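Q: Joint fold for the lines below.
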Amino acid sequence: MTTYYSEDHEWIKVDGDIATIGITAHAAEQLGEIVFIEQKETDDEFAKGDEIGVIESVKAASEIFAPVDGAVVEANALLVDTPSALNENPESDAWIYKVKLSDASQLAELMDIDAYNALIG
Amino acid sequence: MSETPKRTPLYDLHVELGGKMVDFAGWEMPVQYPMGIMGEHNQCRSKAALFDVSHMGQVILRGENAAGKLEALVPSALTALPEGKARYTFFTNESGGIMDDLIVSNAGDHLFVVVNASMRHQDIPHMAANLDGVEVTEIFDRALVAVQGPKAEDVVGALCPAVRDLKFMETILGDILGVECRISRLGYTGEDGFEISIPQDNAVEICRAFLAHEDCEPAGLGARDSLRLEAGLCLYGNDIDNDTSPIEASLLWAIQKRRREEGGFPGAARIQRDIAEGTARKLVGIKPEGRSPARHGVEVQSLDGTAIGIVTSGGFGPTVGAPVAMGYVKTGHDKPDEKVNLLIRGKAHPATIVALPFVKQNYKR
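A: Joint structure:
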């Protein structure tokens, strides 16, 4: 499995044509204490750049933008009742979506961990 | 604000304490410390929190009958305000809207006035131009801090025992570490507490002494906002402004009987009419039923989809444990338990009109 990163501070872990998407620890820290997440539903389709959810923290609302084209296979139900998991384990238990990729070639446009770490300095 | 943000006398202390500094109304202020907004909010509700509010405007009004002259600009009764008492009021404009809200204290030989940071530039010239024979002096060499929470009396009382005898909306000059401070028992959190005006050179030392108390932690603007929202307290520029009348904003309590009858303040005709006839809209508490916060600007709809109002403040209420909001709705939809919808990101979310505050105010009367 390979993990990619987007400029919108998402991680994308790819296993075959299924990708798991979440926000990075850096993003979670910047957002502050998360109190609510609005997620899309299973089978919802989206294109790269589409808004696919909203994260509300005690400070503000922030959109989640799709890093690739795809369709929702599963939205993480844990986050409905426990949005604070996004602060605690953003890169493991608190994944946001499992999606089916419709164009795996888009992954090449994303960053690897080194490039992402360079981005956030 | 294009100018370089100003710093309060406590700036270095905020940075040392790990405060995350942001520009607020032209001031570099801590929005939160490492404890985080929710932790700081809960700290204030359960123990005590220290806020820097030095960005607010502190003003001294000195002159014969200053209280009587100030009554020409505000609808509250001030001439009979006893020495050592503070009162909440607001400057009104000619159409009966609110230009800013403020606290006026009778300090004996002068009035001590505190106005909002964002409106200092308007309020000081407004008073200087309209208070004939009154010396209007803006204070630049004093910090203003708030110690708020059920343990605030212990935190401040450990250094100045006299504050234990103060009641809500009372003010004294008190000695803290050998420094004369103006200490007023009031605040903006819904909790018991004090606002303390301190000479700037002593502000850090005194704040460190407050923070040395085991029950006191620093809190930033983030917690200040969620605390005041749960307490149902208006934020100038959000919930009240030049277009809202005090009656729409449910602030009739701040207009004492004599002033309601006599008038004699800007916009009196409109405000007296609002009192007599009611208003077309009312400021209410709004409780979203789901988990999604409704923020400033969200449309309020009746169940049939008609627009009936707008959210003016909203967010997550840590003490309530759920989103809370306030806003204006058309009269007729303003009674508690009325079901409404909030249009958040194009989707209707159910909510209920509720009486304010969301969290019972805990003042020492």
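Q: Anything notable?
A: The mean pLDDT of chain B is 97. Chain B is about 20% helix and 35% strand.
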